[in-house]
Amino acid sequence: MSDPLHERDQAAAALDMVAKAAGPYLDSLGDRPVHDHRADILLDLLDGSLPEHGEGTLDSVELLLRVGTEAATHSSGPRFFHFIVGGSTPAAQAGDWVTSLLDQAGGLWLTSPFAARAETVALRWLKDLFGLPQSYGGVLTPSATFANLTGLACARQWWGECHGRDVAADGLAGLPPMPVLAGGYLHPSSRKALLTLGCGRDSARIFARDDAGRVDLAAMERELERVDGPAVIVGNAGEVNTGDFDPIGDLADLAERYGAWLHVDGAFGLFAAASPRLSHLVEGVERAHSVTADGHKWLNVPYESGFAFVREQGLMGRTFGPWGAAYLPAEDDPHLNYNCLGPESSRRARALPIWATLRAYGRQGNREMVERHHALALRLGEIVESAPDLELLAPVRLCVVCFRYRPPGVPEEEVNALNAWIGEELLADGRVYAGTTTYRGMTALRPAILNWRTTEADIDLLVSVVREIAARRTR
Ligand SMILES: *Cc1c(COP(=O)(O)O)cnc(C)c1O
């Protein structure tokens, strides 16, 4: 054993082991805890020194499966409510396996017309689902962070061009700082994008009219009047603490009035557009210059999956390509080379799970999933509101419910510590995963419901586990 060439006839057998483990594992997701901390001991089995002679294909895959199916965080099950984490639909999960099976170099048309065509179709279907004009350019990215990087890089290129500069070629030296304006809902990933782009992590000027972060449009407008030259506005469609939205239409109006670029981070909130009942939340997004969202959140595609859409497709090419390298496609290549439209070079055929889930469940299936999760969030909100020991901290907008445990008689100065403790105990318990955030100075739970497997019973269990844990402390 050692050289994979000697194990080539094990390739299908190794995949077969994975497939055989899949059935029992997926069947167990409904009942098992999100995380069984006792299984963490198995992680030691991954460790050790680099084997001099390999342990072989089947032995290694067997060990990985043994450890993984026990010690992984079972976040694709129905009760991982922490952060904003989706699951994996059956079609998306299988589509992801196909991606690995075919192992495409998915950046260039030349290396995989199949991957490029699937990406083009997936992007077209996504624009359709989100009500974005088909004229928008698009690219698949590993995440919304990369999608924000893509959109804001295009914004920076546009802004440089307004100043007569090709920032892609020449950088930012000699230019004034790029004015970036946002409300208090700005997500850290946009700050990360700004730092990566050399604009500075803290360069965004924040206009908030309250401690929740709701955007102060009047103050933002005064700043737009004041700044010299064009600016970039970042809007958030879906904020992580409560699921609230910036008024995208109003931001689009401001952008139009002042000739600014509007970038909308819709990592999960853009999926409101998939439902006629909820699409009012993102009204105006079709007027943005760049729009981003995640596949690994509400589309329920496995990690990693994100997408960026840019109104002027040509700008994407000017921002990220061409390389001017003799061995790579030239600028006038008639085919779409997606690695010229985004920050990646080599990349997997990221479109396949997206294509598979959109084809499998269509517009209706995705709409129903979004509406079901919205209904579950409303249900949780109602349970919280009618409970004497729970307090809803913000209206339920979409799929996040921001609340805290607050039984009568506990003094306010002890409520934060109590909720922080409940959050830690919830994670240690593992049956339902929900951690805490700080919202308007209050320590709060903020479960996010966006896994296709989640049902009412899972929501009810969350409430009862919170109470059970709290009773241990307050007793
Ligand atoms: C999750 C999230 C992001 C970042 O997405 P990643 O996929 O984790 O990179 C950006 N913005 C918002 C609003 C998010 O919820």
Give a short overview:
With 475 residues, this protein is of the alpha/beta class. The chain has 13 helices and eleven strands.
Task: For this entry, give a set of tags.
single chain, 475 residues, alpha/beta, Aspartate Aminotransferase, domain 2, Aspartate Aminotransferase, domain 1, 3 domains, seven-stranded mixed sheet, two-stranded antiparallel ribbon, 42% helix, globular, binds pyridoxal-5'-phosphate, pyridoxal phosphate, Pyridoxal-dependent decarboxylase, PyrdxlP-dep_de-COase, PyrdxlP-dep_Trfase_small
Account of the 3D structure:
- This protein has helices spanning 11-28, 57-71, 90-102, 113-130, 144-162, 167-170, 188-196, 217-226, 248-258, 313-320, 351-386, 412-429, 456-474; strands spanning 137-141, 180-182, 204-206, 232-236, 261-265, 290-294, 306-310, 390-392, 403-405, 436-439, 442-445.
- It is an alpha/beta fold and 475 residues long.
- Helix 1 packs parallel to helix 2 (57-71), helix 5 (144-162) packs across helix 7 (188-196) and helix 11 packs across helix 13.
- The termini are far apart.
- The chain binds pyridoxal-5'-phosphate.
- Pyridoxal-5'-phosphate is lined by residues 84, 143-145, 187, 189, 236, 238, 240, 265, 267-268, 294, 306.
- Pyridoxal-5'-phosphate binds next to helix 5.
- This is Pyridoxal-dependent decarboxylase.
Distance between the amino and carboxyl termini: 60 Å
Strand content: 5-15%
CATH H level, superfamily name of the largest domain: Type I PLP-dependent aspartate aminotransferase-like (Major domain)
Mean pLDDT: 96
CATH class of the largest domain: Alpha Beta
Sequence of secondary-structure elements: HHHHEHHEHEHEHEEEHHEEHEEH
| Count of folded domains | 3
Number of helices: 13
Give the fraction of residues assigned to helices.
40-55%
CATH topology of the largest domain: Aspartate Aminotransferase, domain 2
Secondary structure category: alpha/beta
Largest sheet: 7 strands, mixed
Total count of strands: 11
Described by the principal axes of the CA atoms, the overall outline is globular
Q: Name the hetero compounds present.
A: pyridoxal-5'-phosphate
Radius of gyration of CA atoms, rounded to a whole number: 24 Å
Unreliable spans are none
Pfam families: Pyridoxal_deC
Protein name: Pyridoxal-dependent decarboxylase
Family: Belongs to the group II decarboxylase family.
Cofactor: pyridoxal 5'-phosphate
